[in-house]
Design brief:
The chain has about 400 residues and is α+β, with helices and mostly antiparallel strands. The chain folds into 2 domains: about 170 residues, Creatine Amidinohydrolase, Chain A, domain 1; about 220 residues, Creatine Amidinohydrolase, CATH 3.90.230. The chain has a 4-stranded mixed β-sheet, with helices on both faces. Helix 2 crosses helix 3, helix 9 crosses helix 10 and helix 11 runs antiparallel to helix 12. The longest helix has 24 residues. It is globular and about 70 Å long.
Length: about 400
């Protein structure tokens, strides 16, 4: 928390709240819940990760907080804090909350909800963040229940109140990165680059994938960073599983090693992938690697303000088809034939979330940060190659933020 406050001052969060008010324009109270802790087993929890929208507006990294923005004034409602919880986890420091967020009014749970309830009972509308599904089938995970709990409580106070969804407003705000955010992303990228450098120097003597992961983690922690997502350290056939995270197999030195890792610094994440050879690469490995590099260079050349990401992906896909044909992976460049060896999109937004919020149906604008991550995966040859860099959209085109991280197969 102290490290975070030093990186982002209270005026950053105040500025974000002011911008949200200007976009919303309504007079209804804005009520936003932070994330709650989630059970891991018995009486233990998973490591806490704050809701990105809540952090963007407050800078606070404690569970079960509620932000209220109403009539030009803001206040934080604290959770109930029993004596046992305070003894084990420590109490909440109101002065720190005020200093970090720039919100001077911090109310205990009873006083806070008494104040908010009196307002909600009379209001026709309340603005908040809509509840996601409790289970997202496409991702295979349960969502944090904090928003659902907040809406249930608001509805219990005023069953007829109409809820206004703020998600689109926050997508617009968060899509354009401010200088502090770009600096944090750049720092996360630089830390990730240092980890890659260490891996290249020492991976050839490692025996298992997890030894490589340990090298990366050491660099991250020494730089006061953490993993922005579960690291992918995939050797040989494992590299053909896009989100392989077991990282526990012995290293086949004749096969390639794919490293998809990103440091998280002050809540902002890098997302970098490199593929390296542990011994002299074969002619075939070199050919596939060069094809991926060519695809990435082509993709770089397509990015600039005003570009429609859907059309961009279509152009890249066609180019991929040509490269696949060049390296002998089929004669057809149909969508189905391409997706056999190139099953994912080329770019996604990056920021507070590794797959950050963004409008994929709107033109790109200066200040957005994206990944460019082509890959070719050939399970029958046990070859999986992905190269991923992070880019900033500028008035003139792009700046490759990860340009200093070498892209060498051997």
């Amino acid at each position: 928390m102290e490290f975070q406050a030093a990186s982002f001052e209270a005026d950053f969060f105040q500025h974000n709240r002011d911008n949200l008010r200007q976009l919303f324009t309504g007079t209804a109270p804005i009520v936003i819940a932070g994330h709650g802790l989630v059970q891991r087993s018995a009486d233990t929890t998973y490591p806490f990760q704050q809701d990105s929208n809540f952090w963007y507006l407050t800078g606070l990294n404690e569970p079960d907080l509620v932000l209220v923005m109403d009539k030009g004034k803001d206040y934080i409602i604290l959770p109930d804090q029993g004596l046992t919880k305070q003894l084990f986890d420590g109490g909440l420091n109101e002065e720190f909350i005020q200093k970090t967020s720039g919100i001077t009014t911090v109310l205990d749970n009873r006083a806070g909800w008494k104040t908010l309830s009196s307002r909600i009972k009379k209001a026709k509308h309340t603005a908040t963040l809509a509840t996601p599904p409790s289970y997202i089938l496409s991702h295979g995970f349960y969502t944090n229940p904090s928003r659902r709990a907040l809406i249930t409580k608001i509805k219990s106070i005023n069953p007829t109140i109409e809820l206004l969804d703020l998600r689109d407003h926050l997508v617009k705000l968060r899509s354009i990165k401010q200088p502090q955010e770009i600096a944090a992303i750049q720092r996360a990228i630089d830390i990730t680059g240092a980890a890659h450098k260490k891996v290249v120097a020492k991976a050839k003597s490692a025996a298992y994938e997890y030894e490589v992961e340990a090298l990366i983690t050491q660099v991250f922690r020494q730089a006061d960073a953490v993993h922005g997502y579960q690291p992918i350290v995939a050797n040989g056939i494992n590299s053909c599983t896009l989100h392989y995270i077991q990282n526990n197999q012995p290293l086949n030195k004749k096969a390639l090693l794919l490293l998809d890792v990103g440091a998280e610094f002050s809540h902002y994440s890098a997302d970098i992938t490199r593929t390296i050879a542990l011994k002299s690469p074969t002619k075939r490995q070199k050919a596939v690697y060069q094809a991926v590099i060519d695809i990435q260079d082509y993709a770089f050349g397509q990015l600039r303000p005003g570009v429609d990401l859907r059309k961009y992906e279509e152009k890249v896909e066609k180019y991929v088809g040509e490269k696949l044909r060049e390296i002998g992976l089929g004669k057809s460049i149909s969508h189905e034939a391409i997706r056999r060896y190139y099953p994912h999109a080329t770019s996604h937004f990056l920021g507070l979330d590794v797959h950050d919020v963004g409008q994929y149906d709107k033109p790109l604008a200066s200040g957005m940060v994206l990944t460019v991550e082509p890959g070719i995966y050939i399970p029958e040859e046990e070859i999986g190659i992905r190269i991923e860099d992070d880019v900033l959209i500028t008035d003139r085109g792009i700046e490759i933020l990860s340009r200093r991280i070498p892209k060498r197969l051997w």
